[in-house]
């Protein structure tokens, strides 16, 4: 799929340039879940949120954690869930403008990371899911994300 390869090389360069221009000193840094897409949390009967699956956990930009949730909602076309999440989040903790501005960049980075995780783990997970439909859907999504950068 030479067109996909060419686009990946292009969008990686766009992301690198934007990352170089990102005011990283203004982004909030700290402990991050790293895989905060929503599926790694449950709400208990007494309305407490419990997080799990910390294999990607470590120090990082809070904007990335927020972007992973944004990525999952965009991938599943759940814009209302994203809007509600952001509104609820901001009731408890302010997200500063530089962090919000970085979210689209991190969403695109997340999509590339996921493609890499899936393809590099195919020898262990199997190759069946890495078919034309998988790449059509995921590359189209990446192109849509890239258009927004």
Summary, kept brief:
With about 150 residues, this protein is mainly α.
Largest sheet: 2 strands, antiparallel
Radius of gyration: 16 Å
Shape: globular
Multimeric state? single chain
- Name the structural class: mainly alpha
**Mean pLDDT level:** 92
- Measured distance between first and last alpha carbons: 23 Å
Number of helical elements: 6
Q: Which residue ranges are poorly predicted, with pLDDT under 50 across at least 5 consecutive positions?
A: none
* Residues in helices, as a percent range: 55-70%
Number of strands: 4
Side by side, the strands of the main sheet go: 1-4
Strand content: 5-15%
The SSE order reads: HEEEEHHHHH
Can you walk through the features of this model?
- By secondary structure, the chain is mainly alpha-helical.
- About 60% of the residues lie in helices and about 10% in strands.
- It is built from 6 helices and 4 strands; from the N terminus they run H-E-E-E-E-H-H-H-H-H.
- The protein is globular and about 50 Å long.
- The model has no long low-confidence stretch (mean pLDDT about 90).
Fold topology:
Layout: H1 2-21, E1 29-32, E2 41-43, E3 49-51, E4 58-61, H2 62-75, H3 79-92, H4 97-120, H5 122-125, H6 132-147
Antiparallel strand pairs: 1-4, 2-3
Helix pairs in contact: 1-4, 2-4, 4-6
